[in-house]
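Hi support team,

I'm opening this ticket because the web form for multi-chain structure prediction keeps timing out on my end. I have pasted the exact lines I submitted so you can reproduce it. The total is 460 residues across two entries, so I didn't expect it to be a heavy job. Is there a limit I'm missing, or should I split the entries? Thanks in advance, R.K.
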Amino acid sequence: MTMVTDKEQLYQQRLKRYVTAMRKGKPDMVPIRPFVAEFVATYCGYTCQDVTQDYQKAFDAVIRCCRDFDWDAAVANMVYVWGGLPQAVGLKYYRIPGVGLDENTGFQYLEPPAEEAFMRADEYDELIKDPTGYLFNVWLPRVSTDVVPPGRPNTFRNNLSFLKGGMAMLSYFGAFPAQIDRMRRECGTVSAIAGILKAPFDIIADKLRGYLGLCEDLVERPAKVLAACEALAPHLLHVALTSADPSKTVPIGFWMHRGCVPFISMNQFQNMFWPTLKPILQELFKRGHQVLFYAEGRWAAHLQTFRELPDASIIFHCDMDDIFEVHRVLGDKFCISGGVPNRLLAFGTPDEVRQRVREVIRRVGKDGGFILDASAIVQNDARVENIRAMTEAGREYGVY
Amino acid sequence: MTSNQQQPDRVHRPPGVCIPWEEKVRELPRITANEQLVRKTWEDIDALAYMYIWHLLVSS
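Hello R.K., no limit was hit. The queue was backed up. Here is the completed structure from your submission:
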């Protein structure tokens, strides 16, 4: 049994505030939930390399930020890539700070040239027939420096890759419950999300064919792309369900990449992206899970489509769209989050940040169903005084 | 658009599974007692292998 302490009371108060807003209610005040990543390193005097290579340092930095800032919820470690796993498996699609990358640049995803994509254009049938088998037998040997495909001579490094990779993943994932408990006990801060979802379409673009390869396939072999999305969907649903909050309190994080106009056409969105994503979202909601739409970039062209989802089934996080327009279109159905542009946090003044917070709360947050946040993940370009101003202004103007 | 044309036959490997119990059990000596206990142990560990590859794809 958890002992009731001051931190526990604070936690319960913040949890109620956060959940009420996510369910479209009006809490006692606007919840503050910044998705702070490399910012926590800057704040604690660490480099990006420090927090990427040593997840305990990343965890400690999150704890220190949660202690020092009056945030209702935060992510347990938004610098989510721990260097141990890519090293153990020899993953080729990363640059980790300090290894071929400046120590103060956040980790980067690499996309190979289209002709060297991790999945070839003529392999759709193999993927569709057996997605899990394809990933182990074809994809993993291509994305790893050490894994050899079936039929090739085995190697010491191949064996080690699976052993070290599996143990590294368990070590890292297994450390999160204690970190979430620390956030609660030491800071009274709620862990903002649990679990992960990506759209089938984005998985093909991000990790299999590459964006350019996918664009070619949308013209040359659209039925194969659709069939691949349909084959991936049940697995992505399973990953989301098995990584979600068992208590169904906090939402599943859904990271939205290049499934919107103008990366793809409206026709492709309506006929491929959305029909292979919507059933996943409906099933998650049917099972009691909310989903946080982390709508990176601009999704204005698709807001009306998102209205097809049940009321309060998602929280729509606004990045580069006009948040006032997003609120006008979606505000009656879903909680909205965001509001403070990262550009302002990096280059603006504390006074400008305060004015922005005041305006967003007045226009978007006035009836509840709003969570104050930066527009996108906060990296090490954000100024500490601006994050402080955002937090303090959120409290000053956010009381209902 | 439909994808229901000339698609390959699917391998029976449902979400959460790498090597189905039905395939594994054929390799084992006759199970003389509680098969469900053996099956659960197999499936719980098999699910970790599934988690490994799918989280490499989705989460990392």
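A quick check on our side: Residues 47 and 263 of chain A are 33 Å apart (CA to CA). Let us know if the file doesn't open in your viewer.
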